[in-house]
Design brief:
The chain has 157 residues and is of the alpha/beta class. Helices cover 32% and strands 22% of the residues. The chain is built from five helices and six strands; from the N terminus they run E-H-E-H-E-H-E-E-H-E-H. The chain is globular.
C-alpha cells in the first residue's frame, strides 16, 4: 500500500536508481529516483537542481553519495524541502565543505560498522548544525535498517 506523496531517492556512487533502498521505499511511497550514474557530485547537483526547481515540499532520501547530494541541494535551496533522510551520507568528501545548513529535524542514519563512510566525520558535520545522528547496528549498506528508513520518511511526511 503506497502513500501518494512523492519521495525522491538519490542513490550512491556505486549503485543506481533501482536498488534495495529505492525498492523498499517504492513499497510505501511514490518514488522518483533519478539516474546519477557516471556523474560527479557537481553534475549530480546540477541535475537535481533542474529536477526540483519548482518544488516546495520535497522529501528526499539520500544514500551515501546521494546523501551528500541531498545535503548540498538542501543547503542551496532549503525553501524547496519538507525534509530529508540521509543514509550513511558521504559527508567526509571535500564537497561537504560547501554545506552551509541542514534542517534542524534532519534524520541521519549511520551504521556503527560502516567501513566506507567514517562515522566520526558524519557526527562532526551533523553536530556543526545541531543535528544528532541515529547510530544503528549495521554496516554501510544499511540493509538491516530499511524499516527504520521507511519509518523516518513517514516522520518527515
Amino acid at each position: 500500500m503506497s502513500d501518494e506523496r512523492e519521495v525522491y531517492f538519490f542513490h550512491g556512487l556505486e549503485s543506481g536508481p533501482v536498488g534495495t533502498k529505492s525498492t523498499r521505499l517504492d513499497e510505501h511511497f511514490e518514488v522518483v529516483s533519478p539516474d546519477f550514474r557516471d556523474m560527479d557530485i557537481w553534475e549530480r547537483l546540477e541535475k537535481a537542481e533542474e529536477l526540483t526547481e519548482d518544488a516546495d515540499d520535497l522529501v528526499v532520501v539520500g544514500s551515501s553519495y546521494g546523501g551528500l547530494l541531498a545535503a548540498l541541494l538542501y543547503s542551496r535551496h532549503p525553501q524547496r524541502f519538507r525534509g530529508y533522510v540521509l543514509m550513511a551520507p558521504a559527508l567526509y568528501l571535500e564537497a561537504a565543505d560547501e554545506i552551509e545548513r541542514m534542517p534542524p529535524d534532519a534524520v541521519v542514519i549511520h551504521g556503527v560498522h560502516d567501513e566506507v563512510v567514517p562515522i566520526d566525520t558524519v557526527r562532526d558535520v551533523c553536530a556543526r548544525f545541531g543535528v544528532e545522528i541515529e547510530e544503528v547496528d549495521d554496516n554501510h549498506r544499511l540493509h538491516a535498517s530499511l524499516d527504520r528508513m521507511v519509518q523516518a520518511v513517514r516522520e518527515v511526511l
